Request: fold
Amino acid sequence: MHHGAEVPCSDASFWARRLTSLGVVPWAIPLRTLTADALAAALRRATAEPLHAHRARALADLLRAEDGVEPVRQAVERLAP
Reply:
């Protein structure tokens, strides 16, 4: 019997791998094997290890410093007739 969560998001695995590679989460849980126990274990580890919090704060600082709107505005202007 399967009790995993089914998420119809095709980019979920991409973001799981990305967050893992950035070191802000301990590991990615494949959707096929996602259970409440697996998620709880990952959350316990993510919140117990200071390294994950440190990396998440550093990433948040980088994202906060980005101007996410301006590059999109420039791209739209280049495409506008």
